Known about the structure:
The complex is a heterodimer.
Chain A: E1 2-7, H1 9-12, H2 15-23, H3 28-33, E2 38-43, E3 81-83, E4 89-93, H4 102-114, E5 121-125, H5 142-148, H6 152-171, E6 178-181, E7 184-187, E8 190-196, H7 197-201, H8 234-238, E9 254-259, E10 268-272, E11 282-288, E12 291-296, H9 299-308, E13 310-313, H10 325-331, E14 336-342, H11 346-352, E15 355-363, E16 375-381, E17 384-389, H12 394-405, E18 412-416, H13 428-442, E19 446-449, H14 452-458, E20 466-474, E21 480-491, H15 505-509, E22 542-543, E23 546-547, E24 555-564, H16 577-594, H17 599-605, H18 610-622, E25 640-650, E26 657-667, E27 673-683, H19 690-710, E28 739-745, H20 758-775, H21 786-794
Parallel strand pairs in A: 4-5, 9-19, 17-18, 21-24, 27-28
Antiparallel strand pairs in A: 1-2, 3-4, 6-7, 7-8, 9-12, 10-13, 11-12, 14-24, 15-20, 16-17, 16-19, 20-21, 22-23, 25-26, 26-27
Chain B: E1 11-17, E2 20-26, H1 32-39, E3 58-61, E4 64-67, E5 80-82, H2 84-87, H3 95-102, H4 112-125, H5 131-137, H6 148-168
Parallel strand pairs in B: 1-5
Antiparallel strand pairs in B: 1-2, 3-4, 3-5
Helix pairs in contact in B: 3-6, 4-6
Amino acid sequence: xxxxxxxxxxxxxxxxxxxxxxRAGFSRRSFVAGAGALIVNFSIGGMLQTAxxxxxxxxxxxxxxxxxxxxxxxxxxxxxxxxxxxGGVIAYAxxxxxxxxxxxxxxxxxxxxxxxxFGRVKLIACDTALCPDQGITTGSTSSPTNFNQKNLAQAxxxxxxxxxxxxxxxxxxxxxxxxxxxxxxxxxxNPSKKVGYGELVGGRKFEIKLxxxxxxxxxxxxxxxxxxxxxxDLPAMVTGQFEFVHNVRLPGMLxxxxxxxxxxxxxxxxxxxxxxxxxxxxxxxxxxxxFVGVVAEKPWQAIQAANKLKVTWSAGTGLPSHAEFYNxxxxxxxxxxxLLVDSKDVDEKLGQAVTTVKATYHYPNxxxxxxxxxxxxxxxxxxxxxxxxxxxGVWPMRSTSSMLLGLKPEDVHxxxxxxxxxxxxxxxxxxxxxxxxxxxxAGKPVRxxxxxxxxxxxxxxxxxxFVIDEHAGLDRSGNIVAWNHESWSAVLxxxxxxxxxxxxxxxxxxxxxxxxxxxxxxxxPEEYTNLANDVxxxxxxxxxxxxxxxxxxxxxxxxxxxxxxxxxxxxxRGPGRLQNTFAHExxxxxxxxxxxxxxxxxxxxHLSDPRLVAVIKEAAxxxxxxxxxxxxxxxxxxxxxxxxxxxxxxxEGDNGWAAMAIDIEVNRDNGxxxxxxxxxxxxxxxxxxxxxxxxxxxxxxxxxxSRAMGEEVTWDKEKVxxxxxxxxxxxxxxxxxxxxxxxxxxxxxxxxxxAGEIAVTTVAAAIGNAIFDATGVRIRxxxxxxxxxxAALASPSxx
Amino acid sequence: xxxxxxxxxxxxxDLKVNGKIHSVDVDPATPLLYVLSDDLALNGPKFGCGLAxxxxxxxxxNGKAVPSCILPVQSVEGAEITTLEGIGTIEKPHPxxxxxIEEQAAQCGFCVNGIVMTAKAFLDNNPxxxxxxxxxxMSGVLCRCFTHTRMMRAINRxxxxxxxxxxxx
Lengths: 799, 169
């Protein structure tokens, strides 16, 4: 039995949770300063029971999720829904569309709860003049936020019930005798007795509060949700009519170009404005601390001037050797440590184990690498600012850009305009600051689009590099008796949140510090969080005598170390979750091989979470998985060999479940790996748009495949050297795309979970496991480039 | 839709875009892309990399797919330039555009211009292309959302339809 309590976030937020939230992309300040309460599940009863098996009525609201001062208040219905005299519905939301179809499903959600056709709902999202603050669009939280919590869904349900009540009075029919169809409420027994929404409330405010008890439409009665509603934005996109932020054109708009330092840590010594004097179209040279840029009439003129501007920079602060970076991660002191789980008997159990296995995994910094380099348009004049930005958080942007510009937050208006897909913290926030600073200095609207190099080397916050040690013991029957996990990764900056503009490059160049690094030794875990999937799925996750994990292995420890990063870092699809899953799922495969067990059967043997078990069985079924241990019986050492691999995840512990089987070919002569088939099963609760979900899964799987096969940020002694598509490899449209078969389990009776990142997390491990299956060689470092695979095949002991 | 007068070392250039002549007064070294997006306010061609590596800026130059981000505008004076806007509209989409809508072949949509224009030029010039040849032709364009499966399915639909049409004649 469980009951919900509302508690002040400060009193409940442990350091572990804080760290996990930091990993999830929230800055410390954002949740310390953030308003609102944290909803937690408070369980009563002393039975040792896995959390995953319990019914969880609500997902935790994360601090930083919004409702900041100045926002249309969440508890007021008019903050979310307006109905026009024509019966048209306007819905206001605070979650951005970043290419994943989120606005399509939010529109479906409102149409469903309000019983109107899809086309009658106009969604307006992410405009600080109109829309409620829903924090940052991140961490696979958009659907859970608006589908499960007291937000958009509850607002629409409240509106429908309010309309039914009004209709009841007007038609003199009891509310329970009424039915709402297509925006018209009529008496069930006399359809001629009817009234439309427009007539009832059109053009007026509701002036009521959200009713937390308003009845949501059950999934069994859905007519709009659950259907493969096509994306309404696509026709304009494919015909060149769609307006991205890149296409915002304001009267009198100028164009800016930034001049970034030549080396990490280099500072401005002098800027010779005369070096560009008289250049065609030049309007202004702008310097603010180490932020340098030019403004010109035309984009090409701005580029010319930026190239010519003479800036003297100090020497950089230097970068650690790229080749030795994993060793650097492991050896830096001091560190910031966190224990996610510690059963206190891991060393003892490992000592008693019949067999122990140890392995170390390496995952590199990777890029978001947006298709379009980031762009923003700013109009900062007369103490007021209007920012057209692809930011994932308009309200946080309003707050941090006001700090940057020295304006009051209420004088900054942020309007979200769609950018190229970002997959996390690309250059969107940085370029918004760039445009704002240049516009403020020029006193005119300024558009900035970063160059490809500036996007890749001086625009975005890279995905985290990790070193992960795994150590486990097996008993006589080959069952895991203890699992020790320890990781090292580096952080610098992150999402600016509401108070840290220095968390991204432009803010830092302009003089704001990134949030400080605070070393510490790890305190004992007080409550269980697994937001970054630090704890392997097979560990019971016992904290305070209760098991919260998805596995059966009672003896477990998960310890993480953070160090300051030499380069800016931030959330990139599946942050931490992907890196940890690469290690956990590769290692699980190594354990299965040691136990001479089938990898799928071995996983199932150590799991207690029925939803994870279900997706594993589905994926294995799709792949027609035949039970046998890996590797395949050995063949001759040349030519093309085939193999299969498996991996699974309970995303963030309880925000989606997925399993993947992969078939590959490995060319033993040149080390080339080709993924032939991907079989994937997931459970994200009720499926709100099956085609949108499939699109996310297909894209996520292939994107993760590109990351696993070739993507890595590189640098020399002073600067990043992966600065374009020649030096940062991505798989082009014409590569041999594997066949992808998907079985999504629909759970209409459950809460919605995230679905945008889950497919991403399983791919690297599944490919690594398939390489092992095909060749008997284990590769513990991403990316699996042909060079690395070939070298590993040549000397398996060093892999 | 004609470019505003500006200063500096400009020269008047006549560009034929989507069947219409536009007189623009620009630095003749300006890459075509900037003129299309800034002076002519077209949303189709996009700046992805500025290095002819990703395809986002692709336009048709006398029917051939070219990266407009590196082509000086003076070098294309007099040529037939076609952008994504020029091959179809929301009301009357080109078969490729129609196939992309039917297959829901996009996520963020930023790459769509490069993909559709590259595919159009290739299929127009190679009406009997095999799937393998098509794949090769698409190996210079990128999609970072990795909507590859749907996009290739959409393009293949059009390729197959054309082969069928040709066979029926």
